[in-house]
Design goal:
Layout: H1 2-5, H2 12-39, H3 42-48, H4 50-57, H5 70-96, H6 99-118, H7 123-151, H8 157-182, H9 189-195, H10 198-210, H11 215-220, H12 224-235, H13 241-255, H14 260-263, H15 270-285, H16 288-301, H17 306-334, H18 336-361, H19 370-388, H20 391-402, H21 408-437, H22 441-459, H23 471-474, H24 493-496
């Protein structure tokens, strides 16, 4: 098999490149975690949303509706709308400039967003800062997973790519710690929380100057000798001919495609495109971002005090980080499908249990019993645990490894934009959904989890240990559903790309 011909060893430089690039995930995760905590801070609400603060203070207010405000939700969700649009520009940047400069641009936008958000004196400055954050996220989430997939040796591709998601979880955890600490800094703790987002952005900026460009990107832009040298550098060996020739052939085929987005609409491109988009939709419809964005708000709704709710978020963040390591070490051992299916069962149990407890015991006013509240926190952690080793990292990994080179950046742009679109929808709608559906919102997400399990069983192929240059012949053409999209008499352009 081709993967047996690909020689490599892990050098300190290679490992360092993986870590530095993965700071793009830390940047993304910090923002996911920080926004929910900030929107739960009284000082922040008093400054920008005094009406919500007044509503929150009324003990008789409906537990499920006290944070229902479209502008407050826009503070969180505007980032993802900006990321959605910018992901298509990031796709072009990845192709024309390369993965490395695109990562540098991501860090620059993110640092600008952190500065403006921390200094915001008016609502429009706050939203503009979120938009700059969003552009940074759009560029980073497009370039970093592609970069990690392209520089990883085939037998470690899953683990290396999951470093992105691992750093997302670390970013969320750090954000929860920061929010807990800054909640005691009155009246500007929220400014510190938002401003500190510049640190992961700066780390990614430094990393983008240190890492090497991916060999595929260099050859794709006709820098063949530089590409070969880069391949030797990231593999840690001089004998890279077999893999280099595969990259050359893939790039030669890809160069014949002048309009990758148009080519993405062809019949043969549909299987990876459909899988990529559905993975992003399902990743969001688990309800994970509803929990991560609004964990402090959610726990306050359950009757926790402000500080206690932030501390509970720290606990879920720690569980998130620890559980992602299961994905790092398990994805290339157990495969993608087994992790996804096991997680569906665990997440379904968690959502149904949480919904049942709230439905029967949380009234419109008053608090949840302390023991029951602790049980809810347990099931939230149980849910986060399953997501962290499955749908979280694999939602980014699988699309990055299944597109042929000629449509890879365009296809991945669709994946990123789909993720951001549904993240935007959930972020914008969750608090209103919680107000109207109340405890039934957890049953809403449960139904989606059942659909996701059926999707994995019938439509998702296993990609463990298969070189990305051989996905067509060994994955798509062997699948009982997707093989119908490939005609045997078609040219084998897509096979090697």
């Amino acid at each position: 098999m081709a993967e047996q011909l690909y020689k490599s060893k892990i050098t300190p430089y290679v490992f360092g490149s993986w870590i530095m690039a993965a700071f793009g995930g830390l940047m993304f995760g910090y923002d996911i975690g920080i926004s929910g905590g900030v929107t739960g801070m009284d000082d922040f609400l008093l400054y920008f949303f005094p009406r919500i603060y007044e509503r929150k203070m009324h003990a008789s207010e409906n537990n499920y509706c006290k944070y229902d405000d479209q502008i407050l939700q826009l503070f969180t969700s505007s980032l993802y709308l900006a990321a959605l649009v910018s992901s298509f520009f990031a796709s072009k940047a990845c192709s024309v400039l390369g993965r490395k400069p695109t990562i540098l641009l991501a860090s620059t936008f993110f640092m600008a967003g952190a500065s403006l958000s921390a200094a915001a004196q008016a609502g429009w400055m706050l939203i503009l800062g979120r938009i700059l954050f969003g552009i940074g996220v759009g560029f980073g989430n497009e370039a970093v997973p592609l970069f990690l997939t392209e520089i990883a040796p085939v037998h470690l591709r899953g683990a290396v790519n999951i470093l992105f998601q691992l750093f997302v979880t670390i970013g969320i955890f750090i954000a929860n710690l920061v929010n807990y600490g800054t909640s005691f800094l009155h009246p500007s703790g929220w400014r510190v929380s938002l401003g500190l987002a510049g640190i992961p952005g700066f780390m990614l900026f430094i990393g983008s100057l240190i890492i090497t460009e991916s060999p595929t990107s260099l050859v794709e832009r006709n820098k063949k000798e530089e590409g070969k040298l880069a391949l030797k550098k990231i593999r840690g060996v001089d004998d890279v001919e077999a893999e280099y020739n595969e990259i050359l052939l893939a790039c030669e085929i890809a160069s014949q495609i002048k309009h990758p987005f148009k080519n993405l609409m062809k019949k043969q491109s549909m299987p990876p495109l459909i899988i990529a988009v559905l993975l992003q939709v399902f990743q969001q419809m688990t309800g994970i971002n509803a929990i991560m964005f609004y964990a402090p708000v959610l726990f306050q709704t359950l009757g926790f005090k402000s500080d206690a709710s932030l501390l509970s978020s720290v606990i879920t963040g720690l569980v998130n980080v620890g559980s992602t390591f299961v994905g790092v070490f398990g994805v290339d051992k157990f495969g993608r499908r087994k992790l996804l299916l096991q997680a569906c069962v665990q997440m379904l149990i968690s959502q149904v249990a949480t919904g049942s407890i709230l439905l029967n015991h949380l009234k419109l006013t008053g608090s949840l019993d302390k023991n029951l509240a602790a049980v809810v926190v347990f099931f939230v952690c149980f849910f986060v645990m399953a997501f962290a080793w499955s749908w979280g990292p694999l939602g980014w990994l699988i699309p990055s490894e299944t597109f042929p080179l000629e449509t890879r950046t365009a296809g991945y742009a669709f994946a990123v934009s789909s993720n951001m679109l549904f993240t935007f929808i959930i972020a914008q709608a969750f608090l209103s959904m919680m107000c109207h559906l109340q405890a039934y919102i957890f049953f809403f997400f449960s139904a989606w989890i059942v659909v996701m399990g059926l999707f994995v069983i019938f439509l998702l192929p296993e990609t463990k240990g298969i070189p990305i240059e051989h996905m067509v012949d060994r994955v798509w053409k062997q699948h009982p559903v997707w093989k119908k999209f490939f005609d045997d008499d078609e040219p084998k352009d897509h096979e090697m790309a």
